[in-house]
Amino acid sequence: MKVIRLGSNSPNLEGNAVSALMWSDLDERAVRMARALAADAVQKVGNGHPGTAMALAPCAYLLFQKHLRHNPANPHWAGRDRFVLSIGHSSLTLYLQLFLSGYPLSLDDLKAFRTAGSLTPGHPEYGHTEGVETTTGPLGQGIANAVGLAMAQKHTRALVDAGEYSDLFDAKVFVLAGDGCLQEGVSAEASSLAGHLELNNLVVIYDDNKISIDGATDLSFTESVGERYRAYGWDVIKVAKRANGDIDVPALDAALEQAKSSTSKPTLIQMESTIAWPAPKLQGTAKSHGSALGKDEIAATKEVLGLDPAVDFFVDEAALTHAREVSVRGALVESEWQARLDQWQQKDSAGFSRYAALMAEPNLQTATAALPVWDAGSKVATRKASQAVLNALVDALPQLWGGSADLSESNGTLIEHSGSVTASNWAAKNIHFGIREHAMGAILNGLALGGLRPYGATFLVFSDYMRGAVRLSALMNLPVTYVWTHDSIGLGEDGPTHQPIEHLASLRLIPQLAIVRPADGNETAAAWLEIIRRAQPVGLVLSRQDLPTVTTSSSAITDVARGGYLLRSHSSAVATVIATGSEVSLALAAADQLEAAGTPVNVVSMPCVEWFEHQDDDYQEQVLPASLPIVAVEAGATASWYKYADAVIGIDRFGASAAPAILFEECGVTADAIIAAVAELNR
Ligand SMILES: Cc1ncc(C[n+]2csc(CCOP(=O)(O)OP(=O)(O)O)c2C)c(N)n1
To answer: Exposure check for the chain: N or C terminus, fewer CB within 10 A?
Structure first.
């Protein structure tokens, strides 16, 4: 094997880093093979994104072979570095390295690219393909996920506090991002926070190819990205492309070495490339971004690469064998890490048990015992109840970590006995996300991918700002809790800009997301317990205003877990009234009057429609007997209730700036309205 020892003194490389990269002809051949496979895979299915995968093959290969600490034989190794492909459209960039490194992804999987049921879907999907650390495709999300992963690493390291063994928790997060990712606001929000928090374990390679879909990026993107990132507090290293247009591998290698040794800053490597290099006609063109290159251009490209133009899906066995040796190195790195972990366990069993507790499933018995209780006759805003619950649970459940987008007191997420997370206080429990709701959501996804049970809070109305991230929590089925407070016109005088109307209905449309709107303190406590038990994405929707206690603690724990339950039943009920959150007490008030008038009703508290729908038919029929007409009441858009209800009392207009009592009256969400609806249905 011929070994090429490359040295670089690229004038564009800041600092003094010089690469002494071992790069053999087999490495070269592996990269050429990857470029051709990228072109072939898109050509075969007839759609996809060949250009970027061709161009970035050397960059991704360098990362997977020489920098990433990973073990392809054990993609879930706890000590691994993480790789996030923020440019999800270039999924082949990742699939090709998984194939070359020896992850369970075969040539046939590459041939099945983007076809039904394949392991190689159009964009990388977490939980579907081994080695895919997060689902990407919506541009910018990946960078923010990576910020979350890097934060999770820092928090874990600080909580575990392993002293001289702390290096066990020094894994890094590498990201490949493009112009699109850096144009998206979510990446700016997340990068700003990453700089502030001095996330030196985060390295973003920015593929500066000056091309997106509409054409050259200077159609809309002319700022100095490097200056912007410097202003965020990042190190920025520029890696110019080679004279022939290809990526300068040794310069990139040196930049990565420099980035890995950063002690106080995240690093952006601004790496120039030429999309679709080395396709003779289509390199550097927007056309190569998202269309097959065509047979002739692929044949010509293969000639440039020194490959047989007549052979598709060519595998250079010697190069593949060489690339797969990364598995041997990876297994060694993992076994060294494990040996050191074992050694630490021997020397510091208390420290190790902190780690074990963090890695274990949360202890539900301890959590149940810690839950606060609200007695009949008391009143509490559910956001305040949630704060009491969180404060009671954080010590028992070290996996819980979160904060708010500058509303921690309002949202009730402040952990009172703990400080604020800073670059020098990673053990603290209060994350201040700043007013960056979208990044908060995407960072929560990263925290969950990093093994934690994160929560993040803002006003329900601003869930709109974070919807892109919420959708991905749901798609990945991550145990993320969105704490959304100030959940209706009940917030009062802040007026219609702050009063959610359509939000509950619209969030309920997201598959796999449970929306939980508790009626009182006990339902709130029970909701948290069920959230922890289920480990799934949840929007926890809480009131600003005090609500009377309508349940008992012990029954709420069983009842809330079922999503909906009979809070009051009557043997001669003439209707069922379903209510959620603050409207449950309204329904009870109406029920009192109806009973006095000789027309009793059942009242169903339905904190979570999704959990209710997981119950068997018998239970659902018991709660909502088909024989009784149904009235639903909720201070929000009516649309989502018609699948159950014959009449819905809700709000299909914007609110106003006024006292809550006036608003409920004006919007028609009243006990009288419920009574009238029941009467109407029984006429
Ligand atoms: C949030 C979001 N908006 C739009 C798209 C559609 N889209 C996919 S790739 C792309 C262009 C990305 O350009 P760049 O990052 O430069 O990628 P390259 O052309 O270099 O592959 C667009 C607009 C998307 N995937 N996500």
So the answer is: C
Same domain, 245 and 389: no
Residue 106 CA, chain-centre distance (Å), reads 28
pLDDT digits (tens, 9 = 90+) for 412-423: 999 999 999 999
Task: Specify the CATH number for the domain of residue 609.
Answer: 3.40.50.920
pLDDT in tens, 269-320: 999 999 999 999 999 999 999 999 999 999 999 999 999 999 999 999 999 9
Asked if residue 411 and residue 551 are part of one domain, the reply reads: yes
Report which ligand 1 atom has the smallest distance to the Cα of 177: 15
Please give the number of the atom of ligand 1 that sits closest to the Cα of 207. 20
Rounded Cα distance between 311 and 36, Å, is 10
Nearest C-alpha neighbor of 67 from the set 82, 86, 56: 82
Cα 143 to averaged position of ligand 1 atoms, centre (Å): 14
Type of residue numbered 18: V
Question: Residue whose CA is closest, atom 18 of ligand 1?
Answer: 212
Q: Which residues line ligand 1 (CB under 6 A)?
A: 52, 87, 89-90, 137-139, 178-181, 184, 207, 209, 211-213, 275, 289
In a domain, residue 456? The reply is: yes
Distance 294 CA to ligand 1 centre (A): 21
Q: 659: domain range?
A: 563-681
Closest ligand 1 atom, residue 275 Cα: 20
Ligand 1 mean position, distance from CA 211 (Å)? 10
Pocket test for ligand 1, best of 90, 175, 212 (most atoms within 8 A of CB): 212
Q: Pick the range with the lowest mean pLDDT from 2-16, 88-102, 578-592, 664-678.
A: 2-16
Peptide bond into 600 cis (omega under 30): no
**Distance (Å) from CA 334 to ligand 1 centroid:** 35
**Whole-angstrom Cα distance, residue 560 to residue 574?**
24
Which residues are tagged catalytic? 437
Three-state secondary-structure class, residue 275: coil
Q: Tell me how far the alpha carbon of residue 177 lies from the centroid of ligand 1, in angstroms.
A: 10
**Do 171 and 65 fall within a single domain?**
yes
Last residue of a domain, one of 512, 529, 555: 555
CA distance 676 to 163: 68
Atom of ligand 1 nearest to the CA of 468: 1
Give me the residues paired with residue 480 across strands. none
Q: Which atom of ligand 1 is nearest to the CA of 180?
A: 15
d(CA 490, CA 72): 53
Nearest CA to ligand 1 atom 23: 213
Cβ proximity of 28 and 21 under 8 Å: no
Residue type, 609: V
Ligand 1 test: best mutation among 52, 54, 89, 241, most atoms within 8 Å of CB?
89
C-alpha separations of 50 from 126, 277, 496, 612 in Å: 21, 10, 47, 45
pLDDT band at 11; cut points 50, 70, 90:
very low
Count of domains for the chain:
3
CA distances 572 to 595, 624, 625, 671, 675, Å, are 10, 14, 12, 20, 16
Taking the centre of ligand 1 as the mean of its atom positions, its distance from the CA of residue 469, in whole angstroms, is 17
Look up the CATH number of the domain holding residue 497.
Answer: 3.40.50.970
Asked if residue 351 is part of any domain, the answer here is no
Radius of gyration from C-alpha coordinates of the chain: 28
Q: How confident is the model at residue 20 (pLDDT cuts 50, 70, 90)?
A: confident
In sequence order, the β-bridge partners of residue 658 are none
Q: 513, 537, 555 — which closes off a domain?
A: 555
